[in-house]
Write a structure and sequence with these properties.
With 262 residues, this protein is of the alpha/beta class. It is built from nine helices and twelve strands. The strands form three sheets. Strands 6-9-10-3-11-12 form a six-stranded mixed β-sheet, with helices on both faces. A four-stranded antiparallel β-sheet has the order 2-1-4-5, with helices on one face. A two-stranded antiparallel ribbon has the order 7-8. Strand 9, helix 7 and strand 10 form a beta-alpha-beta unit. Belongs to the ABC transporter superfamily. Ycf16 family.
Length: 262
């Protein structure tokens, strides 16, 4: 079932770290069911942009707006932004020894989707959360979809995971948590072709379910399996060019120098 039609609006966003301006006025609009890709050279601000959208306190937002629907979420904490429907798949996710993947995801799901008060539960006619049985059934189906074995769900989060396993767990989180908007920060880095296809399959499923998607990547290889509606080139903290698949083709042939000359 698709989600409602939402919009993620980013308007003239500026941010700094240590009094140095990193993001220099980015404006972007992503609708439900759209895939946007941001590409750019190292040091252009791509990962910083993702962290600012999710509310990393290490970065100070100077000005601008980040809205989901009509609500500006720029002043909210990361966990509050998540409850509003924003999700970030980390480039380098941390390990959590002693916490199983299954328990981690169930706790996260309950935190995001359970009605918080008795009045809310009565109003929505919803249970506080999925039963353990129902959730586990859903989790196993989503893991199977990503070709993850059942034993994977019993392992501690990211502990002794390969690079591909970490990226697949980020995708599993997105499938389970069902955000309105998902940001994937270089989820294709370090993946072999088989793992890349699995991750791409997850992105396409999220799109079909109605999520708005922002893919941050250095390379065009993921975009051969995922067809973005828009590609944006980020350089020096600004979007310098937007277009369609022709931009990825141009980059593959001539590199970012070609963008500077256009």
């Amino acid at each position: 079932m698709k989600t409602k039609n939402y919009k993620l609006r980013i308007n003239n966003l500026k941010a700094e770290i240590g009094n140095r301006e990193i993001i220099k006025g980015i404006s972007l609009k992503i609708s439900s069911g759209e895939i946007h890709a941001i590409m750019g050279p190292n040091g252009s601000g791509k990962s910083t942009f993702a962290q600012i959208l999710m509310g990393n306190p290490a970065y100070a937002s100077k000005s601008g707006e980040v809205e989901i629907g009509s609500k500006n979420i720029l002043h909210l904490k990361p966990e509050e932004r998540a409850r509003e429907g924003l999700f970030l798949a980390f480039q380098n996710p941390l390990s959590i020894p002693g916490v199983s993947v299954a328990n981690f995801l169930k706790t996260a799901y309950q935190s995001l989707h359970s009605p918080k008060t008795k009045d809310q539960r009565l109003k929505t006619n919803a249970n506080p959360a999925l039963s353990v049985w129902d959730f586990n059934e859903k989790l196993v189906k989503d893991a199977d979809y990503l070709s993850l074995p059942r034993e994977f769900l019993k392992r501690s989060v990211n502990e002794d995971f390969s690079g591909g396993e970490k990226k697949k767990l980020e995708m599993l989180q997105a499938l389970v948590l069902k955000p309105k908007f998902a940001i994937f920060d270089e989820i294709d880095t370090g993946l072999d072709i088989d793992a890349l296809k699995v991750v791409a399959q997850g992105i396409v499923r999220l799109q079909k379910e109605g999520a708005g998607l922002l893919i941050i990547t250095h390379y065009s290889r993921l975009l051969k399996f995922v067809r973005p509606d828009f590609i944006h080139i980020l350089m020096d903290g600004k979007i310098v060019k937007s277009g369609g698949s022709e931009l990825a083709a141009l980059l593959e042939k001539k590199g970012y120098a070609a963008i500077k000359s256009h």
